[in-house]
C-alpha cells in the first residue's frame, strides 16, 4: 500500500482552491488528477503521492510545502464584506482566504517585528451593536478622531491612519469589481485585519472602503454570523453612516453642504478626498438638503456621466498600506533574512507574498526560492525556524507613523 506524502493537510488544499476560485472538478481537469482523489485528499481519507501533489500545487501556484503546514487557529469571528449583493460566493471565498493568509503572514512576521499596539475606541457588545442609534454612530466616529488626534479637518491618508492604530491592511485586485472589502478580528493575535479591493481604481472609493470596514471592526465585531445574515442591510447602512461621519465631520462640513451645486461638491471632493456621491448622501443624512433637491443633484450627476466615473478619479493618487511592506523590508534589511529564506519561512509563493504585503511585483521573486527536498528534517516535524542559518530572534520595533 502506497502511503503518499506524510503530513499532507487536506484543509490546505480546500483553502487553496478557495483562494484560486477553483472547484474540485476544475482543479481535476487542470491537473489531470481525478476529482474523487482530490475529494479524498481534502477529507483526509487519502494522502497524495508526491508527483500528484506537484501537479496540483503547480496549478494552484503554491509550493508543495504549503500543503504540509497545518492551518493555524485564527478564531471564528464573523467576516464582514462590503460587496454588491450579487457578488458570487467565489468572490467572497477568495477575499476571506486572502485575509486569512494575510493574518498568517502577519503572525509570522510578528516573531521579529512589533506591530503598533491596537488603539481604538472600546468595541461594542453584541447587544449594543444591535441597538445603536445614528446619533451614537456619529459620536463614535468623533471619538475615533479624538483618540487619534485627527482634528475635524480632512484626513490626509486614511489607510495609514488606520494602520497606525494597529489594524493590518492589504490592498490588491481580485478580479471581482463588485467586491470592495472584507474585515474581521483574529483571536490569534487579538488584532483586526482588512482586505481592500484594488479592482476599482478610484482613490476616494478606497478611502471610503477603509472607513467602512473600520466601522465593522468597531461596531460589529461581537456579532454572530447569523446576525450579519439577518441584519446585513442595516449593518451596511450603519457602516456607511460611520464612514461618512468619520471622513466628513458634521460640524466641519455642514455649512458647505447646505444646498450645494455640483461644482461646489467637486471642489469639496478635492479638499476632503471623498466622492461627490458620498457628499450628496452626507448632505441628505444631515438634513441639509431635502428629497427634491437631492433628486435634482442625482439627475444632474447622471446627466454629466459621473455614474461611470467622477472628475478627479484618475488624478487623486491611491493610498497603499505601509505596515506589511515595511515589516518585510525590515526583516530583509535588519533581521538577517535573505529573500529566499524569507519566502521559505512565510510559506506562500513569492507572488502571493508580494501581493498580500503590498510589495512591488518581482520584489521577492527576482531571487529564486530555495528548494527544500521532502525528506528534509523540516518536513519531519522540525520547526522551520531551526532550519534557518543564524536564525534571527531579535524583535525589531516598528514605530507608528503619524498620518494626519
Description of the structure:
- The protein folds into 2 domains: 10-68, Orthogonal Bundle (434 Repressor (Amino-terminal Domain)), CATH 1.10.260.40; 77-247 and 322-404, Arc Repressor Mutant, subunit A, CATH 1.10.10.2910.
- The termini are far apart.
- It has 18 helices and 6 strands.
- With 404 residues, it is of the alpha/beta class.
- The chain has helices at 10-19, 24-31, 35-43, 50-60, 89-109, 126-131, 134-147, 158-164, 203-219, 225-230, 232-247, 250-253, 262-272, 276-285, 291-303, 323-334, 339-346, 350-356, and strands at 80-83, 113-114, 168-172, 179-186, 191-197, 396-397.
- Mean pLDDT is 88; it is low at 368-393 and 399-404.
- Strand 4 (179-186) and strand 5 (191-197) form a beta hairpin.
- A 4-stranded mixed β-sheet has the order 1-4-5-3, with helices on both faces. The chain has a two-stranded parallel sheet with strand order 2-6.
- One of its GO terms (molecular function) is DNA binding.
- InterPro entries: Cro/C1-type_HTH, IrrE_HExxH, Lambda_DNA-bd_dom_sf, Rad_response_metalloprotease.
- Residues 382-404 are annotated as: Disordered.
Amino acid at each position: 500500500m502506497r502511503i503518499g506524502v506524510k503530513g499532507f493537510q487536506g484543509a490546505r488544499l480546500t483553502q487553496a482552491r478557495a483562494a484560486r476560485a477553483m472547484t474540485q472538478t476544475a482543479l481535476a481537469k487542470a491537473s489531470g488528477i481525478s476529482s474523487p482523489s482530490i475529494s479524498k485528499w481534502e477529507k483526509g481519507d487519502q494522502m497524495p503521492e508526491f508527483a500528484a501533489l506537484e501537479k496540483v500545487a503547480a496549478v494552484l501556484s503554491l509550493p508543495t510545502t504549503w500543503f504540509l503546514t497545518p492551518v493555524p487557529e485564527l478564531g471564528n469571528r464573523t467576516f464582514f464584506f462590503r460587496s454588491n449583493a450579487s457578488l458570487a460566493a467565489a468572490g467572497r471565498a477568495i477575499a476571506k482566504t486572502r485575509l486569512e493568509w494575510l493574518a498568517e503572514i502577519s503572525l509570522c512576521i510578528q516573531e521579529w517585528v512589533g506591530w503598533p499596539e491596537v488603539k481604538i475606541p472600546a468595541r461594542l457588545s453584541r447587544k449594543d451593536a444591535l441597538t445603536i442609534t445614528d446619533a451614537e454612530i456619529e459620536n463614535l466616529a468623533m471619538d475615533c478622531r479624538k483618540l487619534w488626534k485627527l482634528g475635524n479637518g480632512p484626513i490626509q491618508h486614511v489607510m495609514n491612519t488606520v494602520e497606525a492604530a494597529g489594524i493590518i491592511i492589504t490592498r490588491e485586485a481580485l478580479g471581482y469589481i463588485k467586491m470592495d472589502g472584507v474585515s474581521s478580528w483574529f483571536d490569534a493575535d487579538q488584532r483586526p485585519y482588512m482586505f481592500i479591493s484594488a479592482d476599482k481604481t478610484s482613490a476616494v472609493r478606497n478611502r471610503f472602503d477603509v472607513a467602512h470596514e473600520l466601522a465593522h471592526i468597531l461596531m460589529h465585531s461581537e456579532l454572530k454570523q447569523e446576525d450579519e445574515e439577518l441584519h446585513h442591510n442595516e449593518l451596511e447602512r450603519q457602516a456607511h453612516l460611520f464612514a461618512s461621519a468619520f471622513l466628513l465631520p458634521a460640524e466641519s462640513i455642514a455649512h458647505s453642504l447646505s444646498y450645494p451645486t455640483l461644482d461646489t461638491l467637486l471642489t469639496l471632493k478635492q479638499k476632503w478626498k471623498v466622492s461627490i456621491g458620498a457628499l450628496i448622501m452626507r448632505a441628505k443624512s444631515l438634513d441639509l438638503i431635502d428629497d427634491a433637491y437631492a433628486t435634482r443633484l442625482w439627475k444632474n450627476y447622471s446627466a454629466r456621466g459621473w455614474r461611470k466615473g467622477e472628475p478627479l478619479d484618475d488624478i487623486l493618487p491611491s493610498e497603499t498600506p505601509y505596515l506589511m511592506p515595511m515589516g518585510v523590508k525590515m526583516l530583509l534589511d535588519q533581521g538577517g533574512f535573505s529573500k529566499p529564506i524569507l519566502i521559505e519561512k512565510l510559506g506562500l509563493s513569492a507572488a502571493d507574498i508580494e501581493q498580500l504585503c503590498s510589495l512591488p511585483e518581482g520584489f521577492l521573486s527576482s531571487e529564486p526560492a530555495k528548494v527544500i527536498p521532502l525528506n528534509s528534517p523540516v518536513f519531519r516535524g522540525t520547526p522551520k525556524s531551526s532550519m534557518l542559518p543564524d536564525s534571527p530572534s531579535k524583535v525589531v520595533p516598528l514605530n507608528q507613523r503619524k498620518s494626519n
